[in-house]
Amino acid sequence: MMRRLFLTLCLLTLPASVSAQTPKLGELRVVAIRFNWQNDLRTPPSVSSGQTALAATDRLFREASGGKMWLTYAILGPVTLPMDRVSCNPFVWANAAVTALGSSVPAHDRLMFAFPVVSECKWNGLAAGSTWINGTWSVHTTAHELGHNLTLGHAASLPCRTTTSGALSCVTSTYGSTVDVMNASGVGHFNAISKRRLGWLTDAEMPLITTTGTYRLGPFETGGDPTLPRAIRIGTGAAERTVEVRTHQTAFTTPVGVTLHKALSVQMDTDHVTTTFRAMLPVGVDYREPGWTLRVRRVGVWGADVSVMFNGDPLPADLYPPDSPVSPPCTTSTQIIDASEAVWRVNGNWNITRNGVSMTRSSSTVYKALMWTGDTLYANSQRGWQRYIPTGTTAATRWTVPTTTAPTCKG
Ligand SMILES: [Zn+2]
Predict the structure, then answer these.
(1) Listed residue (111, 180, 159) closest to 278, CA to CA
(2) Rounded percentage of the chain residues whose pLDDT exceeds 70
(3) CA of 182 to the centre of ligand 1 (A)
């Protein structure tokens, strides 16, 4: 539809007739009912579009929960309600649709209702015990409304600027998050604070940092070194901040970089100077809060290295000093690397042998680093990280990466 609808909407008061008992772990059973009205026989959103949205929501919830929650679903209808459509009456329609289907509605945790677009309903989706889809099924609307069912509120942002008097002036933007599907648009994982609330992340997976140092984070979404934290926490209580690095490893769209949140789901502005909201903290730029400062040392699909400085401490040592090669040094223009490490720093062209398969890059591109994540090789040029699949293999036959082999570099 070309006509613009209002944003997704959540009602905080649940009607007494619907159950609020939704599992936050394990199987979430959704039954979707398509309907129209006796005086309005337009076709409801299609079964295939519902399947697409619900399947993508299943993938998102599985990935975001680390396999702790998944969706199963059935799509029923269409049902023509024995009533005229008058204005926007989602609760009346829902009751009529359930009554019409009677005992044919299978066991479920949540009901979802989908109907031809109604302009009087000023929302794309609605969550209030059940969920409603107004005209168009999309993964964003489905995941967002089911997120409300899981007790999550909206993912806000907090643009801040420094006034002429030096004070910080901040205004909450309710749907403003750039990374969390509980925002206005864009499909990304719930932030770390929401995941912890759902039991999808443990405190151990997002450790509290209390001493000055440089720390390595794994990718927030999935993959990477399983021993690395998915996020870190700095501060406690109302002063708690979470630090995540969003990557391109996920199947879902989200910006790349290091971002910070506070409770409940508020994405922080990493630029306190201008009115412009800067979601991602650039490498080498300081982010300051009372008592501590954060600086990103490097970031990639493998995660990020960040330095945290408490109480005015100086910048701590980097994990990989930018001007020093990893040990053993790789100083020649062509290097042979046969080991696994999070990041290999290279100075130019390179050759890699893995499981008997060799690959060489000798173009004019200057590569700065090589990196394994999971079973995929990435190389970084000035243009950013690029993924490589060895010659003679396909994405389905990626290399196996040993984890303990000592590095070998040869000129
Ligand atoms: Zn909402």
Answers:
(1) 159
(2) 71
(3) 6
Residues 202 and 88 in one domain: no
Last residue of a domain, one of 261, 293, 310: 310
Establish if 329 belongs to a structural domain.
no
Q: Please give the distance, rounded to the nearest whole angstrom, from the Cα atom of residue 260 to the centre of ligand 1.
A: 21
Output the CA angle 40-41-43, nearest 5 degrees: 125
Judge whether residue 99 has pLDDT over 50. yes
Tokens 């009554």 belong to residue: 99
Q: Tell me the CA–centroid distance for residue 6 and ligand 1, in Å.
A: 11
Query: Is 315 within the bounds of a domain?
Result: no
> For residue 299, what pLDDT is reported?
80
Judge if 129 and 215 occupy the same domain. no
Q: What are phi and psi of 232, to 5 degrees?
A: -130, 155
pTM beyond 0.90, yes or no = no
The dihedral through the CA atoms of 113, 24, 184, 54 has a sign that is: negative
Å from CA of 7 to ligand 1 middle: 7
Q: Are residues 352 and 254 in the same domain?
A: no
What is the distance in A from the centroid of ligand 1 to the CA of 186? 13
Could you tell me which residue, 80 or 354, shows the higher pLDDT? 80
* CA of 266 relative to ligand 1 center, distance in Å: 14
Interval between CA 110 and ligand 1 midpoint (Å): 16
Give the H or E element holding residue 289: strand 286-289
Is 241 domain-assigned?
Answer: yes
Per residue, the 3-state secondary structure of 171-208, as one string, reads CCECCCCCCCCCCCCCCCCCCHHHHHHHCCCCHHHCCE
Q: Are residues 83 and 137 in the same domain?
A: yes
Q: Under a CB-based contact definition with an 8 Å cutoff, are residues 311 and 225 in contact? A: no
Q: How many angstroms separate the alpha carbon of residue 42 from the centre of ligand 1? A: 26
61 within a domain of the structure (yes/no) = yes
C-alpha of residue 284 to centroid of ligand 1, in Å: 35
CA of 133 to the centre of ligand 1 (A): 12
Give residue 3 CA to ligand 1 midpoint distance, Å: 20
pLDDT tens figures, 285-325: 999 999 999 999 888 767 889 999 999 999 998 876 443 33
Centroid of ligand 1 to alpha carbon of 206 (angstroms): 26
Distance 127 CA to ligand 1 centre (A): 7
Domain range enclosing 106? 9-149
Average pLDDT value for residue range 354-374 = 52
